[in-house]
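name: query_chain
kind: protein
chains: 1
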Amino acid sequence: MLILTENAQKAISRFIKGSETPVEGLRISVTGGGCSGMQYGMALEETASADDTVVEFADLKVFIDPVSAQHLKGVTVDFLDSMEGSGFKFENPNATASCGCGNPFSA
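structure:
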């Protein structure tokens, strides 16, 4: 389904531990928009929804809604930290086109 690199897992765990409110996991979603038609979203969540797929990585939970799940198959999420900046990078082998910023895509 979805792959999180070790760097991504560490970064997400830091964000969850630093949250001011209780967090059970991270929601990764795909929504319409962006310059290539679809874009990724990430948000800390207090709990999973009833219809979510819950993917566990050690002590980390990722929540994925049914619509997003079909677009996240085989996607690798990495966290890059460099002189140019830091952030999450999505590598989608199923994308037919993507934007230069790396976030929006079309399938």
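note: The beta strands are 2-4, 25-32, 38-45, 53-57, 60-64, 75-82, 85-91, 97-98, 105-106.
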